[in-house]
Write a structure and sequence with these properties.
single chain; about 270 residues; alpha+beta; paralog of FGE (formylglycine-generating enzyme); 5-stranded antiparallel beta sheet; 3-stranded antiparallel beta sheet; 10 strands
Length: about 270
C-alpha cells in the first residue's frame, strides 16, 4: 500500500513545490515490476509512465490519490438528468442507492488498451485498426491486463477515475456539451492528441468497458449479484453519432451487465493497486 502519498484533499491543497517534494519521495518508495517515470503536469493526478519494453512499450497511468468516492446516482444528478429529459431511458434502481466508498490510491491507465497492445499481449483483438481500443471477451480482457501486472478496475475505481474527486453527472461535467466538444470525448483513435481528458488526466470512458465486479442489480449492500456476469461501464462512443437519447451512456453512474453486450466483447483498462 502506498501509505506515504497524501489523500486527494491534502494533495490538492499542497503547493507545486510541495507536490514535487512528495513525488520525489514517492518515486523512491513506489514498487513496480517495470521501470517507470513519475511526473506532474497540468492534471490533478500525477502521471506514471510504465516502460514494459518492446514490443508493448510505454503505457501511461495516472496515480489516483486515496479518497471517498460517491458510487452510483445522487439525487442532484437525477434532478439534472430530468432537466435534460422527462423520461430518460435509464434504470434508476440499478444505479441506486448512492454509496460512499473509501478507495485506496491506485494507478489507472489513461486510456483503454489498444488493438496494437492486445495483439502483443494476447495475440487477439476484434478490430483491424491498431490505434483503436481493443474489444475483447471477458477471459481475454483479464489475460491482457494480467500480462501487465494489473487487473480490471472495480466499479468503484472506474467511477473514481471518471468522477475525478467530485460527483459530476458525466466525466466531462454536469451538462451535455455541444456536439463538436462531445466528439473529442468519443474518438476511437486513442493516439489522437486532441482527444479530451478529465481533470485527473483520464479519457476514453465511453467505449463500453469491463469492470472486475460481478454485476449487482443495485448498489444496496445485500443486492443480488448475477453469477458470471461482470459490470460494464460507459458506452456513449459505442452509439456515436447519437440518434436519440444515447447520451445516457455517458453518465458516470451508468452501468449494465455484460450479458447485455451485443457480441460479448468490451474494452479493458489496466489498474494497478498500490
Amino acid at each position: 500500500m502506498l501509505s506515504s502519498f497524501p489523500a486527494l484533499p491534502q494533495w490538492i491543497a499542497l503547493s507545486d513545490a510541495e507536490k514535487d517534494i512528495v513525488l520525489a519521495r514517492v518515486s523512491d518508495e513506489l514498487s513496480l515490476p517495470q521501470p517507470f517515470a513519475l511526473s506532474r503536469d497540468g492534471y490533478v493526478a500525477p502521471r506514471v509512465v510504465v516502460d514494459y519494453a518492446e514490443p508493448v512499450g510505454k503505457i501511461a497511468f495516472r496515480l489516483i490519490p486515496a479518497h471517498t468516492v460517491p458510487v452510483g446516482l445522487s439525487d442532484d444528478n437525477l434532478a439534472a438528468i430530468h432537466r435534460i429529459s422527462d423520461e430518460p431511458p435509464i434504470s434508476v434502481e440499478e444505479m441506486t442507492p448512492l454509496i460512499r466508498m473509501d478507495v485506496a490510491a491506485f494507478l489507472v491507465a489513461e486510456l483503454p488498451l489498444s488493438v496494437a497492445a492486445a495483439r502483443v499481449l494476447i495475440d487477439q483483438a476484434h478490430d483491424e485498426r491498431a490505434e483503436f481500443p481493443a474489444y475483447l471477451d471477458d477471459a481475454s480482457a483479464q489475460a491482457a491486463v494480467q500480462r501487465l501486472g494489473a487487473t480490471l478496475p472495480s466499479e468503484a475505481q472506474w467511477e473514481c477515475a471518471a468522477k475525478a474527486g467530485a460527483d459530476p453527472l458525466f466525466p466531462f461535467g454536469n451538462a451535455l456539451l455541444p456536439e463538436s466538444a462531445l466528439e473529442r470525448w468519443m474518438r476511437y483513435d486513442l493516439g489522437d492528441a486532441t482527444s479530451a481528458f478529465n481533470t485527473f488526466g483520464v479519457g476514453g470512458f465511453f467505449f463500453a468497458e469491463w469492470c472486475g465486479d460481478m454485476f449487482a442489480i443495485s448498489h444496496a449492500t445485500d443486492a443480488e449479484r448475477l453469477p458470471g456476469t461482470r459490470t460494464i461501464k460507459g458506452g456513449g462512443a459505442y452509439f456515436w453519432p447519437w440518434q436519440d437519447e444515447e447520451w445516457v451512456w455517458c453518465l458516470s453512474s451508468m452501468r449494465m451487465p455484460a450479458s447485455d453486450l451485443d457480441a460479448g466483447v468490451a474494452v479493458c483498462r489496466p489498474v494497478i493497486a498500490l
